[in-house]
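Onboarding guide, step 5: your first structure request.
Type a short instruction followed by the sequence, for example:

Predict the 3D structure of this protein.
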Amino acid sequence: MADMDAFRDEIARWAAGGAPGTAAELAADLGLRTAVLLEGPSDLAAVEALAAREDRDLTAEGVAVVSMGGAMSVGRFAGLLGPPGLGLRLTGLCDAREEPFYDRGWQRAGAVRDFHVCVADLEDEMIRALGPERVEEVIRAEDELRPWQTFLAQPAQHGRPREQQLRRFLSTKKGRKIRYGSLLVQALDGGGPPAPLAGLLAGL
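The system replies with structure tokens like these:
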């Protein structure tokens, strides 16, 4: 049986300059119809967490959620997965500053413009959706209160808005941003996700 991780690995090798290999075969076996292009693994964690929260099996729906390792790769991935390559419908999520890269990538692939833009990035969107106090509760629940307090004591953080401090803190340790990508979605409880993330899932 085809495996989504195997498909993602194959696409990553292909995007890095390797041969197409079994990408088309795996896409067919999985019944893929849509590719969601994301900048990095923290976005992937958030999208998968929200799908699980909504009891959706994206793989079963023919959706491949792909982390590209940076917005600069969007042209390459759009070409491989979109009309010039595997012929999948393209959608995605990006930061506002990376929107021009996505625009060019979609245009070069001959795909209909269909992606959602975060004001700064997805972490910023999640912090504003939850509110700083709720995000700090998540940090406390993860037993990271001491590192958070140490971070706040740094001179560079003095006087900065709490939202900016939280966003920076999530990026200060390897793997933390990815872990909180899903944790912050889970912390939404009964509240709705930020508009870019909600729009992405609703369009799949």
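Each response can be followed by summary notes, for example: The chain has a mean pLDDT of 96.
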